[in-house]
Specification:
It contains 39 helices and five strands. The strands form two sheets. It has a three-stranded mixed β-sheet with strand order 1-4-5, sandwiched between helices. A two-stranded antiparallel sheet has the order 2-3. The longest helix has 21 residues, at about 635-655. The radius of gyration is 34 Å and the shape is elongated. The chain has about 775 residues and is mainly alpha-helical.
């Protein structure tokens, strides 16, 4: 009996002791289902709250917000609650008691709840984390890097420390989420060596991760965008994973991914078609301003008409930044919906005080390019832009404000604005210098008072721009950085002031030309229309040597200057051969529009790949091309259609075994008899190529074939060649002009080509001189 009583007494003590050691506050927090309940528990237990309680409460507050749609979040209400201040004070007092995981989680949650980065709590949490950073587990290191990015500390010594840790521990990172988050955080500090190592590790982990997690490949694409590195194999791998997840994506995520692709100039037909279908499915459910704006921005460039009526109904409910996004989408689609313009402009006008400098510049540019007529609004925008310019000290901001101001009519800028431009030019890259120079030259040219007496302040500014541009090129030592700055540069100032120095710089860096940068260099030479044999030969030799390392789609960019600028050499011939061998096995994986452009490029060079031509003129391919063209911007759509038509003509004339019909390619034609007298003019004829490759002529159809010319008669084609038919730095004719001559000769014409520099010379300044010139050239060709 005594033993039984002892046992019962022990059990009672055990049970009583167990209940006494339960954490009742933590249990109360765990059953909370809303922010008010959390604050209620905090308020009733202030004296009992431990570091674990504070951590749990703060984490739950952020979790509740995270689960809500963006438009329904109540962060500002939470921050104003009295018990939030209680949690903040307790957290600051208990930092030393936090373990590493809790420390980072606490910082992350407070920042997500919009705690100011200058708050003493945030600063102390960051300082404590820095002391412990070398022992952080990788998951905590990754989350801490996000916290630093949220505070705009991407270039800080602390982020540099994280970059060093990533470099040392990269091989041990096996979680794709941890790796991709760190990649984005350290992207501004990675060396080329670490960049390549991160890309290699990401490529491996994408193979082993759960393919349903689309955020990992999205972050990889964001990393590539941040470092401005379009590494095609990794982009394609990311795109394949994202494609599998399209049915699960909402408009916001789709819009983010499309923006990243656009920044990297990555086009993928399958992605655009899948996105168009998914966004179309989301139209009926996107009825609130937030989700509709994301949908409109993503879908409008592919199908704007059906969305504009909904945009008109929702316009008054849009926030300031939603109105800006819609305005830019309307400008991109070249909409002419005046009612919608007025609604969006009205929302923008009443929110002008909200926008940052670059946002006002974007608004002004969108409205101006839409040709929106509202002088009062543009005057107001111009005044705001000028005030922002006078206070700005960021080079990119000054550049954008200057460029947009130059679009608008108005009085000349005062000394303050000019001084601000002058102050930042030494920090500007080549593209920024070019933009500011263009704006200043435009002001000088358009203001009548400048014609005879250019104010000295503008002269000094232009001189500084010239000096800084030359100095930047002379001191440059990395080809990749120079090519990045030259990527979008163009215009008179660059051609007159910097082009010669640029070519000297590129030749000085010829030993840095390698397979990774030959596409970019080739694109630059094509864009500036500049024939440079040493650089072209170097491009050819590098590409031939390392063709297997070069992505098959990059062959288009590499061949551009050789075809367009009509550069012919032994190496060039070999380059065409190796490029064709490189891309032929991958023909089916090309985007349809790029395949058309590639085939046209080869046709200009009188180079035809049978497999490529047969693929393009197959029914399946043309159907896929039609579907893709519906999703492309209008300019690229029209360019692709034009190139397909020209390719069709080239194949018809130079590969007659394909039996297609083509139209005449003339500006002007005449027919002369055997005595060199003109025959009566007739309407332009349709040509048909027979099975034997003979050219027949008719009015409109094959059945209407007309007889051969009278005995001794000849057809003469007069081809006027403007400045676009020649390289900028030489009288050498470009590839398209030579192709046109080749085609006309195949058609049976004797071709007389008239260069613009002869036709517009001082010697030919009268109609009689022109007639004599034409007569001499035509008859000289015929005799």
């Amino acid at each position: 009996m005594f033993r039984v009583q002892c046992v019962n007494s022990f059990i009672r003590r055990l049970l009583h002791g167990g209940a006494g050691h339960r954490d009742q506050v933590l249990e109360q927090l765990r059953v909370c289902s809303a922010e008010d309940q959390v604050f209620d528990v905090v308020g009733k237990n202030k004296a009992k709250l431990t570091v674990n309680h504070v951590s749990k409460a703060v984490g739950m507050l952020w979790q509740f917000q995270k689960e809500k749609p963006q438009m329904l979040r109540t962060v500002e209400l939470i921050k104003r609650h009295p018990q939030f201040l209680t949690l903040r004070v307790l957290a600051e007092n208990k930092i030393a008691l936090m373990d590493d995981l809790m420390l980072v989680d606490m910082l992350y949650s407070f920042l997500r709840l919009n705690m100011d980065q200058h708050d003493s709590l945030v600063q102390q949490l960051v300082s404590e984390a820095w002391l412990r950073i070398d022992r952080f587990p990788l998951a905590s290191l990754s989350k801490f890097s996000i916290c630093l990015s949220d505070q705009h500390l991407q270039h800080s010594p602390l982020m540099g420390h994280i970059t060093s840790i990533v470099d040392q521990r990269l091989s041990s990172i096996d979680d794709a989420r941890i790796l991709t988050t760190l990649m984005i955080s350290v992207s501004s500090l990675v060396s080329p060596r670490l960049r390549d190592a991160l890309i290699s590790r990401a490529d491996h982990l994408l193979e082993t991760m759960d393919p349903s997690n689309y955020n990992n490949p999205r972050r990889v694409v964001q990393f590539l965008r941040n470092i401005k590195h379009s590494y095609q194999p990794l982009l394609e791998k990311c795109n394949r994973i994202i494609l599998r997840n399209i049915p699960r994506l909402d408009a916001e995520n789709i819009s983010i991914i499309m923006g990243l692709y656009q920044s990297l100039q990555f086009n993928n037909c399958d992605f655009r078609l899948a996105v168009k279908q998914r966004l179309t499915e989301l139209i009926d459910s996107s009825i609130d301003p937030f989700s509709f704006t994301k949908l409109f921005v993503a879908l409008a460039p592919m199908a704007s008409q059906e969305l504009e009526n909904t945009a008109l109904l929702l316009a008054d409910e849009l926030s300031a930044h939603q109105a800006l996004a819609v305005a830019e989408a309307l400008e991109e689609t070249q909409s002419r919906n005046l009612s919608l313009f007025n609604k969006i402009a009205s929302v923008i006008q009443r929110n002008l005080h909200v926008y940052k400098p670059v946002e006002v510049a974007r608004i002004t540019q969108a409205l101006f390019l839409m040709q929106y007529q509202n002088p009062e609004l543009f005057t107001k925008l111009r005044n705001i832009l000028v005030k922002f310019l006078e206070r700005s000290f960021y080079p990119y901001e000054v550049t954008m404000l200057t460029r947009v101001l130059s679009m608008l009519p108005g009085p000349r800028l005062d000394e303050g604005a000019i001084s601000r431009m002058h102050a930042v030019v030494t920090q500007c890259n080549l593209n920024d210098l070019n933009t500011i120079s263009y704006a200043v030259a435009k002001w000088v040219r358009n203001d009548p008072s400048y014609r005879h007496n250019t104010p000295s302040k503008y002269v000094r500014l232009l001189q500084s721009l010239n000096r800084c541009g030359h100095e930047r090129l002379r001191t440059a030592d990395r080809l990749d950085l120079v090519l990045e700055e030259l990527k979008y540069i163009s215009g008179e100032w660059f051609e007159e002031m910097l082009l010669e120095e640029t070519m000297v710089t590129l030749k000085r860096m010829m030993d840095q030309i390698q397979w990774t940068n030959v596409p970019e260099l080739a694109l630059f030479l094509t864009r500036i229309n500049h024939l440079c044999p040493p650089l072209m030969d170097r491009i050819a030799s590098v590409a031939i040597k390392d063709i297997d390392k070069i992505h098959h789609s990059a062959t288009y960019a590499i061949l551009l200057p050789f075809s367009v600028l009509n550069y012919d050499s032994e190496q060039a011939d070999e380059l065409y051969d190796v490029c064709i061998k490189r891309f032929t096995p991958h023909i089916s994986s090309f985007d349809p529009h790029l395949l058309v452009l590639l085939a046209y490029l080869l046709s200009v060079a009188d180079c035809f790949s049978e497999e490529l031509v047969r693929e393009i003129f197959s029914i399946d391919f043309l159907g896929k091309l039609d579907a893709q063209l519906e999703t492309l911007p209008d300019a690229l759509n029209m360019r692709t259609r034009l190139r397909l038509m020209e390719l069709n003509r080239a194949v018809c004339l130079e590969c007659p075994e394909f039996q297609v019909t083509a139209r005449s390619v003339l500006y002007f034609e005449c027919t002369l008899d055997k005595h060199l007298k003109p025959l009566p003019y007739s309407e332009p004829s349709t040509l048909h190529i027979s099975d034997r490759g003979q050219v027949h002529w008719g009015k409109s159809s094959v059945e209407n074939i007309r007889d051969e010319l009278p005995p001794g008669a000849q057809r003469v084609a007069v081809d006027f060649l403007d400045s676009k038919s020649f390289c900028k730095n030489s009288p050498r004719m470009k590839g398209e002009a030579l192709m046109r001559k080749r085609h006309l000769e195949i058609l049976g014409y004797r071709v007389v080509q008239i260069p613009h520099f002869e036709w517009n010379s001082m010697e030919l300044s009268t109609p009689d001189a022109w007639k004599e010139y034409l007569k001499k050239n035509i008859f000289r060709e015929l005799t």
